[in-house]
Write a structure and sequence with these properties.
Layout: H1 3-21, E1 26-28, E2 32-34, E3 36-39, E4 43-50, E5 53-61, H2 63-74, H3 83-103, E6 110-111, E7 115-118, E8 123-126, E9 132-139, E10 143-153
Antiparallel strand pairs: 1-9, 2-9, 3-8, 4-5, 4-6, 4-7, 5-10, 9-10
Helix pairs in contact: 1-3, 2-3
Length: 154
């Protein structure tokens, strides 16, 4: 995976949080390359990427952050993970992935349907040929979440 794939995804995430949730600043931390089996967040949305690339994008966060994030999106307080939170995480991910696809227009990226999972102790697997690039994202005064991408040109 190349930096020209990753940076537009980070920009799309920051832009989405700014425009759709009214949150600034959103700062990207140091990315990590993950292979093998590794833990992932309590609530995560995953969307497949097709076209001249093959891969997926993920956002993941703790339950409290998921409630806060969707609460900002819907402009209401949400005390616990429910169907609205899971649907909201899928919608936010869809917006981020769509914005990233637009920034990567040369690759003619198509998006799958988002899948959202909730629960404790999820684990992901990535082999050496398809690592996940995990970028911690921080919202001042709100919390942390992860943006992750796996992508290869076909």
């Amino acid at each position: 995976m190349k930096s020209e794939h990753i940076n537009p995804c980070i920009e799309a995430c920051v832009d989405t949080y700014k425009t759709m949730l009214g949150v600034t600043p959103v700062r990207a931390g140091k990315l990590e390359v993950k292979t093998g089996v590794f833990p992932i967040s309590d609530v995560m949305g995953v969307i497949g990427l097709t076209g001249k690339v093959r891969g997926a994008m993920l956002i993941g966060m703790k339950e409290e952050m998921a409630c806060s994030t969707v609460g900002m999106f819907l402009d209401k307080e949400i005390p616990e993970v429910d169907a609205d939170v899971l649907d909201g995480i899928g919608e936010i991910l869809n917006i981020i992935a769509g914005a990233a696809a637009a920034k990567l227009a040369d690759f003619k990226i198509g998006l799958g349907l988002p899948t959202v999972l909730a629960g404790k102790d999820h684990k992901m697997f990535a082999d050496l040929n398809s690592p996940w690039i995990v970028i911690p994202m921080k919202i001042e005064g709100c919390g942390l979440f992860e943006l992750a991408i796996t992508m290869e040109e076909v």
